[in-house]
Write a structure and sequence with these properties.
Protein name: 5-carboxymethyl-2-hydroxymuconate semialdehyde dehydrogenase
Largest sheet: 7 strands, mixed
Number of helices: 15
Strand content: 15-25%
Strand order of the largest sheet: 15-16-17-14-13-18-19
Oligomer: single chain
Domain Aldehyde dehydrogenase: 23-483
Helix content: 25-40%
Structural class: alpha/beta
InterPro entries: Ald_DH/histidinol_DH (IPR016161), Ald_DH_C (IPR016163), Ald_DH_CS_CYS (IPR016160), Ald_DH_CS_GLU (IPR029510), Ald_DH_N (IPR016162), Aldehyde_DH_dom (IPR015590), DH_HpaE (IPR011985)
Bound molecules: nicotinamide-adenine-dinucleotide
Keywords: NAD, Oxidoreductase
Pfam families: Aldedh (PF00171)
Distance between the termini: 78 Å
Radius of gyration: 23 Å
Length: 487
């Protein structure tokens, strides 16, 4: 294998950050962290247990009850959030290097993720300054108004696919609204989360407001979910994990936001701008190594353009550059972890019995080590196939033909998931009606997966509960108390 880039000053040990200090686990437990290109351990990380979660929650609770953060004027808090955004932007190159090293995401795409993280902080800084609350009057008899209040300690549990950006998506609104937090990042990728500690401290976030506990989901994550002093859990991850967390949080009746898995359809009608649809469909399933919750991993194509589409799509998939994530030419890097690699590789084998293999089908030539899978395309996939129904979370796509709009809709909705959908047609009446009838939290019509931070983000069916984004995040992280006055 060619020489592999290793960022400078890579830590060999990753700690928790509790009450303004980097610390190890009370019981000294650690777990190994792997580099996805060599699959060698490059660091150990403190493995949080119940005692560590207890300490982090106690610090966050103290900072909430007695600290300045929840009482700060929105403008004051917004200034600190903007400093965080500046710091993230200023370190964008370094953050991207670290993220790429830890996750295997292509470096060019990791850079975009760091910038999005900064944007999340700026966006919520703006929102809290512009926020006003309702007042309702009954002339001459009553006035009612709303007190919006931070809730307390928010537990934030995040996945490994775009760790730093997804953490920012929860940290920014939770902190902007005056809560204090305990973050439990994914155990496959703890590196970039540890960078938040210095960024927050330097920007002026008081000790105890941001706490980080690394560790396994079943230990650290579980303790956070069950902690009685944590009234909110914002979770992003797999649907099965979401169900477990939902059950475990029930005892304490917590506020829950659940961003879960997906198997999103990309529906291409014969009248579509086929060049644009092709570009978008390739990006939709192969960017971020296919490890994208909103990946368009089922492509449904109207029969008259089906053969042409399959041929062109497969030809393009074969030209995608797979390789070292740090190489700027790389378009698909290494999957995050050997366990995940095994899962994706097993779906590739299943796919060979369920569809017609048009591209990929295993390791790319010349990459015998590391978690590399060639962009893999299966055509003629039936709706009852496992590769049509199950989230693979890798560079693997199922293509299926349809003959009528009704059939396309039935196929689009024929999974337990309902996160995103992409629709390509020149017929705008059909586009809007189809969007309306698609069981998906987010629909992109003739367009790419581009986010507007004001819009709701979330899924339906097994893809999630609740929405975040814009004022919906503010609603999730605040209580709205009604005050009634008789005039
Ligand atoms: P995962 O569910 O395995 O883990 C997510 C987090 O939950 C990790 O931090 C893990 O340690 C923790 N966890 C695991 N078991 C737990 C438990 N019993 N109690 C508390 N915490 C626990 O998910 P993953 O493999 O890290 O991420 C991939 C999944 O995330 C995919 O299904 C993907 O679609 C989904 N995802 C969804 C969105 C979205 O916005 N809808 C975004 C990104 C990823």
């Amino acid at each position: 294998m060619a020489e592999h880039f290793v960022p400078e000053n890579l830590p060999t040990h990753i700690q928790h950050f509790i009450n303004g200090k980097f610390v190890d686990s009370v019981k000294g437990a650690t777990f190994d962290v792997l580099d996805p290109v060599t699959n060698q351990n490059y660091a150990t990380a403190a493995a949080g247990q119940k005692e560590d979660i207890d300490a982090a929650v106690a610090a966050a609770r103290e900072a909430f009850v007695n600290g300045p953060w929840p009482k700060m004027k929105p403008r004051e808090r917004a200034r600190i959030l903007n400093k965080i955004a500046d710091a993230v932007e200023a370190q964008e190159g370094r953050l991207a290097e670290m993220e790429t090293f830890d996750t295997g995401l292509p470096i060019t795409q990791a850079k975009g993720q760091a910038l999005r993280a900064a944007e999340n902080f700026r966006f919520f800084a703006d929102l809290i300054v512009a926020q006003f609350d309702d007042a309702m009057k009954v002339p001459g008899s009553q006035i009612n108004y709303v007190n919006r209040k931070p809730i307390g300690v928010a537990g934030l549990i995040t996945p490994w696919n775009t760790p730093f950006m997804l953490e920012s998506w929860k940290l920014a609104p939770a902190l902007a609204t005056g809560n204090t937090v305990v973050l439990k990042p994914a155990e496959f990728t703890p590196l970039s989360a540890s960078l938040w500690a210095d960024i927050f401290t330097e920007a002026g976030v008081p000790a105890g407001v941001f706490n980080l506990v690394n560790g396994l989901g079943e230990e650290a994550g579980d303790a956070l979910v069950k902690h009685p002093d944590v009234p909110l859990i914002s979770f992003t991850g797999e649907t099965t994990t979401g169900k477990t967390i939902f059950r475990n949080a029930a005892e304490n009746l917590k506020g829950m936001s659940m961003e879960l898995g997906g198997k999103s359809p990309c529906v291409i009608f014969a009248d579509a701008d086929l060049d644009a649809a092709l570009d978008s469909a390739l990006f939709g399933v192969f960017s971020l190594n296919g490890e994208r919750c909103t990946a368009g991993s089922r492509i449904l194509v109207e029969r008259p353009v089906y053969d042409q589409f399959c041929e062109r799509f497969a030809a393009r998939a074969k030209t995608i550059v797979v390789g070292d994530p740090h190489d700027p030419k790389t378009q698909v890097g290494a999957l995050v972890h050997p366990e995940h690699f095994k899962k994706v590789a097993s779906y590739v084998e299943i796919g060979k019995t369920e569809g017609r293999l048009l591209a990929g089908g295993g390791r790319p030539e010349g990459l015998e080590e590391g978690n590399y899978i060639a962009p893999t395309v299966f055509a003629d996939v039936k709706p009852d196939a496992r590769i049509f129904q199950e989230e693979i979370f890798g560079p693997v796509v199922a293509i299926t033909p349809f003959d009528t709009e009704a059939e396309a809709l039935e196929l689009a909705n024929n999974t337990k998931y309902g996160l995103a959908a992409y629709i390509w047609t020149q017929d705008l009446t059909r586009a809007h009606n189809f969007a309306q009838n698609t069981e998906a939290g987010m629909v992109w019509l003739n367009s790419h997966n581009v986010r507007d931070l004001r819009t709701p983000f979330g899924g339906v069916k097994s893809s999630g509960l609740g929405h975040e984004g814009g004022y919906r995040s503010i609603d999730f992280y605040t209580d709205q108390q009604a005050v009634h006055i008789t005039l």
